[in-house]
UniProtKB/TrEMBL annotation:
Gene3D superfamilies: 3.30.465.10, 3.40.462.20, Uridine Diphospho-n-acetylenolpyruvylglucosamine Reductase, domain 2. The keyword Membrane does not apply. It comes from Georgenia daeguensis. Keywords: FAD, Flavoprotein, Oxidoreductase. Belongs to the oxygen-dependent FAD-linked oxidoreductase family. This is FAD-binding oxidoreductase. Its cofactor is FAD. The lineage of its organism: Bacteria, Bacillati, Actinomycetota, Actinomycetes, Micrococcales.
Amino acid sequence: MTPSPRPDLDLAALQERVTGRVHRPGEAGYTGLATPWNLAVATSPAAVVEVVSADDVSEALLFAAANGLPVAVQSTGHGIASDLDGALLIHTGRLDECTVHPEGWARVGAGVRWARLLAEAAPHGLAGPVGSAPDVGVVGYTTGGGIGPLARTWGAASDRVRAFDVVTGDGMVRRATAVDEPDLFWGLRGGKGALGVVTAVELDLVPQAEVYGGALYVDGAHAAAMLHTWREWCRGLPPEATTSVALLNLPEGVPGVPPPLAGRFTVAVRFVWTGDHGRGAELFTPLRAVAEPIIDMVGPMPFAQIGMVHADPVDPLPASEYNHLLRDLPAELVDALLEVAGPGTSSPQLMVEIRQLGGALAKEPAVPSAVCHRDAAYCLELVGVLVPPLAEALAAHARVVAEVVAPWDTGGVLPNFGAHAGAGGVARCYDDVTLARLTELAERYDPARLLRIGQVPPRTPAGVPAVTSPDVAVAAVAEAPATTADEEPTAQG
Ligand SMILES: Cc1cc2nc3c(=O)[nH]c(=O)nc-3n(C[C@H](O)[C@H](O)[C@H](O)COP(=O)(O)OP(=O)(O)OC[C@H]3O[C@@H](n4cnc5c(N)ncnc54)[C@H](O)[C@@H]3O)c2cc1C
């Protein structure tokens, strides 16, 4: 629903100070920019500032501070964490610089998606640590750690960052590297938008023109055989292999769903091997032996086609997501998951996915970051489409799955999958020490806590939560007691 413009906000004054466009509710452009990829999150910000420079971001933050507005940042809207009602939304879509340096690194604006960076890197035989969906934004993904089909070989995307250009919550334009602003550099790698609005990132690319990889699909009747084979098989894989398995319930008549997979229960095994193709084919043999495939597209592939491995939906949809990090995947857990989410269980989920973690992901980068939970062995993700009458069924089913996995659940969640983790979600993304340091940095770099929407640490010391309603937000900040350096923060939720 489009909100009424707020007459007390002098948006004309903001427009005079920025080069980009200020979009008010009801104006052309507002709805398109304010609508996220995940249509389940209703957003009605007080205004959208389509920034074209770091100075624009700075002006927007100063305006928000002067008017008591919380600030949110959006590029593609793939990871919007909460309603933006009444906030000033900084839209970074026009920060579209993308320069690939053939010697192996790139400088990318905050509005650039992975698909573009990969296309520009490919002629140089280079690739990047993209996630499962190349339509996701490079900056939003990388600030959340970023784990994708190269994760076990090349680590988290944030491990490959050289520098961020960022406007911190206090309106200051800064450059953060391992040497300059090292605290900020630490917190921006894993801390998402808690400390500032990144305008550009510089990151190392990887020499990976091709991979041996893809997805193999079998009928749901083979789910038990495939999951158990995969479970045993992936335990012995070297870090050149990144793999996941997914129970899929793909609907009929939806663009992008291959007809042989539509309207039936199927299982997908995804495999990306970054080494020699022959060795990749050899390693994948046991999975091919499980059952006659419906589709087998595992083979040598140009890196630019990496999105086909997971074949995530491209068009916006109302998504429901639940995520768990697991310390192990014993046979009894596979059986228990099949009992609640396997074929014939009437699971309402579109996808129940298990990604193997470990490999390079498990190692701390040379310059430490705020990315936590590197010891988790697997990541379980439930994805559903929030359409009536499924909404309640999805939540109820997710609770059942949560009970099933509880004995192996680390309790953590990766920041990029934490957008819908609910109350306490931010705390689940970090260990206590990291959350305390991030909270302290948020107080330092964003003293008015303008960036208090979505996945941000709570205000110290009383744990005043990040909130979604601007009225509550402003009141909460006004009421929060002053912070002192030696006070312990309290985790949200
Ligand atoms: C289909 C799909 C597949 C995905 N696959 C993966 C995957 O394989 N691996 C993985 O790690 N994640 C994955 N994700 C999660 C994704 O990485 C996060 O949702 C990420 O936040 C999306 O960033 P965005 O900029 O595209 O989205 P947006 O919704 O525009 O931004 C999301 C959040 O990112 C932060 N952010 C964005 N821009 C900035 C900025 N300029 N400065 C500071 N903070 C910023 C903010 O916290 C913002 O709220 C997937 C999500 C979807 C929907």
